[in-house]
Amino acid sequence: MKVPLKWLRSYTPASLPTVDLAHRLTMAGTEVTDVYHLGESWNDVYVGQVTEIRRHPNADRLLLVTVNWGDDRNITVVTGAPNLKVGDKVPLALAGAMLIDTHLPTPELRALKPTKIRGILSEGMVCSAKELGLGEDHAGIMVLDSAARPGTLLSDELGDAILDLELTPNRVDLLSMIGVAREVAALLDQPLTVPQAEYLESGPPVGSLIDVRIVDPELCPRYTAAVIQGVTITQSPKWLRDRLSAAGLRPINNVVDVTNYVMLEWGQPLHAFDYDKIHGHEIVVRSAGDGESMTLLDGSVRLLGSENLVIADARQAVAIAGVMGGADSEVTSTTTNLLIESANFDPVSVRRTSRSLKLRTDAAYRFERGLPRQLPLPALRRAVQLMLEVAGGHTATDIVDAYPLPSELPEIFLSQSEVKRVLGIDLPIPKLAELLERSGCQVTREDGGLNVVPPLQRTDLTIPADLCEEIARLVGYDEIPSTLPIGRQPEPTINEDWRWFATLRHTLAGLGLGEVVTYSLTSRERIGRLMGREGRLAGAGSFMAPPDVASGYGSFDLAQEVTARFVPLDVEPVELLNPLSADSECLRTTSFGSLLETLCNNLRVAERDVALFELGRTYLPRVNDLPEERRVLTVVTGADRSGSTWGEELPNDFFWLKAIAEAVLGRLGIADRLYRPLCHPIFHAARSAAIVLPGPTERLLGVLGEVEPDVRAAFDVDQPAFLFALDLDLALSVATRVRVVTPIPKFPPVAQDLAVIVGTDVPSTAIEGLIRDVGMPLVKSVELFDLYQGSPIPAGKISLGFHITYQAPDRTLTDEEVADVHRKIEQALVGELGVELRR
Amino acid sequence: MIEQLEELRARALEELGRIQDLTRLEEWRISHLGKRSELNKVLRGIGTIEPSDRRVVGQLANDVKSVLEGESAARRDQLERAARQEAVARERVDVTLPPRPIRLGQWHPLTLVTEDIVAAFRAMGYDVVEGPEVEWEKYNFELLNIPAEHPARDVWDTFYVKTGDGVPRGKMLLRTHTSPMQVRVMERRRPPIRVVVPGRAYRYEATDATHESEFYQIEGLAVDEHLTFADLKGTLTAFAHAIFGPERRTRFRVDYFPFVEPGAEMAIDCHVCRGGGCRLCKNSGWIEIMGAGMVHPRVLQGVDYDPARYSGFAFGMGPERVAMLKYGVDDIRSFKTNDLRFLRQFCE
């Protein structure tokens, strides 16, 4: 909303520097986003009056013009302009004035200096509109209004400041100059004058000229109209054109300009019809028939339907209610009789129509915000008054007021204690009354408080809380003290999950991984890339078909579970109705794509040492319910990391990834978990595992492994990559901070080594488990220290070396005791697992 | 005998003077002071000497022994010190060389800032809760006093979610703010309530340097008897001091959010220009931090709280904005680009 200050000041003094006024409005809730100054640079330019015109003695085409600029101050200037007459009021620039030098190729501001022109000193200059920055007119000197007073600053005469207000949706009243003036008057505690419309009704009774019928009062609770006969369509007077231009509207003709002016003044949109083009001289407010069409003022032809409310005459629709008028009944240069409409329409209906037809007009913008039903009448009267003033003619006696759904202004009871309860400040009742009256409320004293009727346009004031804000606004938020709440504290509750998230972040950052935050919105294409280049892994129609190389590793069920939990590529993602782009059309069902993409982006700028993690969500649709939002930890790394000395690079591998997984699970206190070999299309078939919680039915907790080359290649990752994902919903449900401390042993440990050759199909955990079982309770720890494959170890076999530490809590172990247990362990390994002992 | 001892002493001392390393010194000690040394023989054979000479010879032999011992200890000390010095010279490191490459990871700046903000409120007795990002229209709008077709909805450009036949079109959406959790928390708990809700929200708007279609918010809600607008001001001012420094000044201006009344916006004085006006604060001297207000009576009624008995305040802010101010980040997109060259500038 653009508010020219001069216009505003016709209702309220607003006597305060413009910056301060802008600040007051902003602090009170209406942000002034910009202030334009018209005539800001006219420091030494005054209104002057031409008193004498003489020929320049030395030049035929130049004139010597004497200009009076108040009292007996006269000045002679040299000019070549042909349009001046004695008595004209003109802009007079004195030495030092900043004017636009129109002779330069790119005009710029220059300070005026007294100059001798053909031997005669010109002490100042009379200006064209262009030289003042007021337009392109440079044909002659700008002639001012004859009422301008010589000697006043031109900026006082013509200059203005225009405030650009950014309105909040609740303040529909501020879509009018009177509303803004009321706001300013309230904030500054200054008087407000609302123009009263008075005119003579000399025409026939309005009832004999027009008939108004409303079909659905819910959609049109009120329709008022006036008829003016014998108008002359012409250009509006200068004051009217100036005000509209300053407010950002283009002047059109006197009738249209008045409807626009009253809309800006009162906030009530009006429409003027050519009365003679209203068939049957009847107005019907009705829904459009399906397939009904009309040509609008903007020249477009629109097809309407029953959801669009129209204003129709006896034959056809003549306007789309509250949105735009029709071309057929438009006011033209030949119009002589007018029908002026000032009505109230249902905001939702106007909004829907304006949206579906993509017609965002000033009228629709106001109606959809909900205008008061009391507003059409004063606006209509004001319009009639101005029409008679600027277009002549005579108005019918009385006006039409079809008001099937009358409404009253609300009366709100505000108690003194409520103000204290909401704001925390104690104001006496007279003070409350004074503040609310400043806002234009009608206030009556009532026991313990006030009965308040808000002013007409303040539709935002409906309940006591609104009045509390009104009071706080006028007092100033800065005047309300800052206190800390006293009284009850809620019982402390600790969000354990939130704590765990911090633990995980500390742990992973400590391990050298960087946290990332990726988008949840993604595309099907990006999710689909997890099937490898050209969807190769989709295999025989199903994503789940394990690649040929993999047969023998892991179980099909486990792989299927991994798919369902971490990469459900067979699930249709949650899709947006209105995506911004195809790239963000749906919510991700898996975190893998986002993380592989982020890995690739980072590998591009850093060759190595890229290790990332994310604590994020995935979104799985549910029937007739909100999607399931799963929480998942995802870790991704590239091929290598920094070693422990300069320049050294350590290759990342499955076991590095497993170390990260173990560190995480250790911190979460999840000691009881198993690693199962996994064969899954996303992962390297021989270097991946599922992490499960043991139990009667194993539960899938996580997955880790080297990413299948085809999959990472689809994300442009050109080096080995590793992925670890943990189901945080499950993990946090079993995580624990409880730790049971075992005392530090008092008696010395005995270390023994054991080396075995075993088939590669025997999992290392089986050997370790057997050592612990047989050696119970003396085996304290089993630690792998050597792993070897290749000559002289036969193919299909592996050599493993373990450090076994024996220790008893209550005595020093004897050599015999240790040798005995160790032998038993060896026998068990040979007997039960078929290992060959290495000596 | 006496000459023999004196000659021995002279010879030993002369040899000692030529010794340059500890091995030779040890050999010298064995030969001159060891069990089989000449001196030891003299001392052991002292009984066989004429009684008249015994005292003098014994005295001299002991003197020689203590002289040799003293001198050799001094020599040892000297040689050891020299050896240590040599070792130090040999083992010198260039302390300006880089450290061994231990890589520490780091938290994402948004989680860092979120944690800071949450910690400040936790210290004031607030509990952390989280909620769904895909929401019902009812929670995102209706129960927050933003009815359908109300122009206020234009403020929140919304992504709607495709649903099956069982859910009418437009009823499911990506939450445009974390405010729906105000309602969900009030439904689940009874006053006194104090919660903060960090989480992700979505807006249908093109991403640029200051706008993200996916972003974070932190919502706060306190509901009890006797909570006032003054308490809101005090709480948020205390928060601003905790996060931005105790010297920060706060400013509250009137603002409108349909789910609060009165509504406010809190700003802090600009840390760059200290209120003088600069590019960061668009010459206003103030930087907007968050929206806030007293919970709207209709929102309380919507969850069956008696608005005559209970009051409360709510607030919401964007961690992105806070992080941008705190770390001097000028492009909001930096946070989701996830470039390690950016991320590694953060800690913890």
Amount of helix of chain B? 40-55%
- As a percent range, the share of helical residues of chain A equals 25-40%
- Distance linking N and C termini of chain A: 93 Å
- Major sheet of chain A: 7 strands, mixed
The number of helical elements of chain B comes to: 12
Alpha-beta content class of chain B? alpha+beta
Average of per-residue pLDDT values of chain A: 91
Indicate the proportion of strand residues of chain B.
15-25%
N- and C-termini, Cα separation of chain B: 82 Å
Which chain pair has the greatest contact? A-B, 96 and 93 residues
Low-confidence stretches of chain A: 539-552
What's the rounded overall pLDDT mean of chain B? 91
Shape designation of chain B: rod-shaped
User: What is the succession of H and E elements of chain B?
Assistant: HHHHHEEHEHEEHEEEHEHHH
DSSP, total strands of chain A: 43
The unreliable regions of chain B are: none
Descriptive report:
The complex is a heterodimer of chains A (about 850) and B (about 350). Chain A is α+β, with helices and mostly antiparallel strands and about 850 residues long. Chain A is built from 21 helices and 43 strands. Chain A has a 7-stranded mixed beta sheet with strand order 29-32-33-39-38-37-36, with helices on both faces. In chain A, helix 5 (about 240-245) crosses helix 6, helix 13 packs antiparallel against helix 17 (about 655-665) and helix 20 (about 765-775) packs across helix 21. Residues about 540-550 of chain A have low confidence and may be disordered. Chain B is α+β, with helices and mostly antiparallel strands and about 350 residues long. Chain B has 12 helices and 9 strands. In chain B, the strands form 2 sheets. A 7-stranded mixed beta sheet of chain B has the order 1-4-5-9-8-7-6, sandwiched between helices. In chain B, strands 2-3 form a two-stranded antiparallel sheet. In chain B, helix 1 (about 1-20) runs parallel beside helix 4 and helix 2 (about 20-35) packs antiparallel against helix 4 (about 50-90). The two termini of chain B are about 80 Å apart.
